[in-house]
Amino acid sequence: MSTKYKATTTDEAYFITITVVGWIDIFTRLNQKNVLINALKYCQENKGLEIYAYCIMSSDIHLLCKGTNGFILSDIIRDFKKFTSKKIIQTIIDEPESRREWMLEYFQKVCEHLKKNQTYKVWQNGYHAEHIYSNKFIKQKIDYIHNNPVKDKIISLPEDYYFSSARNYSGFENDLDIVVLSLF
Q1: For 68, how many CA atoms within 13 A lie in the half-sphere containing its CB?
Q2: What pLDDT, in 10s, does the model give residues 169-180?
Q3: Any signal peptide, and if so, which residues (predicted)?
Q4: Beta pairing, strands 14-19 & 130-131
């Protein structure tokens, strides 16, 4: 298995993107965004995840992060994806969701060709980890993360998007605490 875009070391920061299969817009619903926020909090508290920037978009999540205290980021992300996959499906089944039938059917169909026996597949394979190597690269990736909802015309200013660390960097309330970097 290739390690080109995997975070296989500990205590090194990476820019990663985790994407839903078929780019399905699951995270247009508040309950699904909260699934991700709560899972990230758990990983911070119990799995050594240190987050410097993040943004939850409609079909993906961007993170600038690293594993600490001996935890390897690839293991953290594997566990995060496994847990959130199950929780996302359970949320689709249990809570009001007008797209329930076709979404569940799609996530089942994606599994048909897999060797591994599983009922649903929510996340694309991998997470395209890019190793952070300079302050310039950190700034570039944080700007990209924070301006993603602006680029998609969801909001006008990065700090107005509630599910982004742009709020943390601007001193606004946010549900997810992060490590704010002072590189600017």
Answers
A1: 11
A2: 999 999 999 999
A3: none
A4: antiparallel
